[in-house]
Amino acid sequence: MEANNDGSMSQVRHVVLVLSGKGGVGKSTITTELALALRHAGKKIGILDVDLCGPSIPRMLSIGRPDVHQCDSGWVPVYTDAAKTLALMSIGFLLEDPDEAVVWRGPKKTAMIGQFVSDVAWGELDVLLVDTPPGTSDEHLAVLENLKKHSRVDGAILVTTPQAVSTGDVRREITFCKKTGIRILGIVENMSGFVCPHCSECSNIFSKGGGEELAKLTGSIFLGAVPLDPLLSTSIEEGKDFIQSFPDSATFSAISSISQTLLESLQTA
Amino acid sequence: GAGSPHANDCPGTTSEQAGKSSSCAGCPNQKICASGATKAPDPAIAEIGEKLSTVKHKILVLSGKGGVGKSTFSAHLAHTLASDSTKEVALLDVDICGPSIPRIMGLEGEQVHQSGSGWSPVYVDDNLAVMSIGFLLSSPDDAVIWRGPKKNGMIKQFLRDVDWGDLDYLIVDTPPGTSDEHLSIVQYLSSTHVDGAVIITTPQEVSLQDVRKEIRFCQKVKLPIIGVVENMSGFVCPSCKNTSQIFPPTSGGAERMCADLDLPLLGKVPLDPRIARSCDEGKSFINEVPDSPAAKVYQSIVQSE
């Protein structure tokens, strides 16, 4: 599919969707952590948060509610730092009241996403990560249709937790990818076991092994498993850079290895 | 500016403001709505009102946030209510994209049948009926890639065309968010009496952030809130018995939110690996491990409603 290099996406090298199908598995958390890990590896990263009902990324990056401005090439994304290594655009920025519900039906969501995707002046990026809400509906179709118009979509990462209730929905998301021609870059299993900080006993709170089984079942790559880690949950809550705070943790090495594998598959595509 | 989208609500295709409100600008349906074509009230609303008039209690299970345990709660609420064999209970799953209820209720692979009186739901027990789009899919890989209007049509059918019989309780499990499914369920039930909503959350601010929006939604559509349940509220290590706050209540958890918003906190359910296992196996956690701390909290929540 020809890319329509018309400015806003023309300097974005790779576009990766973060999908699930299931809610609450950690799409936004994984998107944020991968972005931070890739930035630590020296890449320029952007995040597009198209979860209209529950935009979580601004809080995870301690961005709060900045004013957003437009320039000639569109909306200026919000940068987490002066060096502009990590950019974010989220519907969260456009809400006057953060507690106000965005109660929109499909057509309006579709129109909004269309504006988002085509009108953000990303500038030069190595990777644009697109965080999505759960499901296989208006937002997902809109994001895909609009991204394809302006750029190539390299593929999608699918996030699941180990249980069958989760992989059951992710299987359907995999079908969505196959039907819409999105390459599956791999599966990440989040909340994969909890190691008690007091006694080191590992508890499989959300069951075990589902991510790998799903990868085998669907012929996808298993990118890795990220454990349940209260330090990560707290970091995310407080908008801190987990990669900087806990570089020696098992969680960090899991995320780091997933980001490395992702980079390699993007570069060899 | 001209291009700045304001996050106002869609006024609804049947409202006076349809197509005319400032929030309609940019919506692909604006012309259709403004022409008045959508304003006639949907006859299904009255039909559903008639059909469900004998249902004594209707409870919606909502969150706003995904993955907090709505389906888990809905299923166990249904099981507990149905443990009184004199009560007729039904569980309706309106999560069109991610229907979890068939698996959690041990009904994977079941299909629905149509008869003269409508669709027959799938029965778990004599007095416990379930309906979900999951029963209309022939394979676990089938994706339901539908836009809003088609999802709304399905929900209308579930309410109007399912032969529920006379029910004591209708529990409705919903997907995360505040969108088509939520607007539709409220709209289609608008000619009936709905007891209210049970709101599910987990302790972290990332969840509460979305849950507050859901609460605003309920207030906007005048849906009473029965109370809030906080799931995944701490984990007691089975080995050393120490508690870890895996999903930390950094902003005071559901307790603080309920105090701020003057809402009842129905209970705090701890994390227990056996809950996930029961759900995966389609069994009732409350039956399988009745003495666990989590099961006891569930029992007390359900009894208090």
TrEMBL record, chain A:
Positions of ATP binding: G21, K22, G23, G24, V25, G26, K27, S28
Keyword Nucleotidyltransferase attributed: no
Keyword DNA-binding appears in the UniProt entry: no
GO cellular component, one term: cytosol
Any one Pfam family match given in the protein's UniProt record, by short name: ParA
Subunit structure: Heterotetramer of 2 NUBP1 and 2 NUBP2 chains. Interacts with KIFC1. Interacts with NUBP1.
Name of the protein in its database record: Nucleotide binding protein 2 (MinD homolog, E. coli)
Automatic annotation (TrEMBL), chain B:
Domain of life: Eukaryota
CC per GO annotation: cytosol; nucleus
Alphabetized Gene3D superfamilies for the sequence: P-loop containing nucleotide triphosphate hydrolases
Entry binding sites for ATP: G64, K65, G66, G67, V68, G69, K70, S71
Main location: cytoplasm
GO biological process: iron-sulfur cluster assembly
Cofactor: [4Fe-4S] cluster
Domain AAA+ ATPase: 56-227
Chain intervals with Polar residues compositional bias: 11-23
UniProt: [4Fe-4S] cluster 1 binding residues: C10, C24, C27, C33
Signal peptide extent: none
HAMAP family per UniProt: Mrp_NBP35, NUBP1
Quaternary structure, from the entry: Heterotetramer of 2 NUBP1 and 2 NUBP2 chains.
Protein name: NUBP iron-sulfur cluster assembly factor 1, cytosolic
Organism, as annotated: Sparus aurata
Gene designation: NUBP1
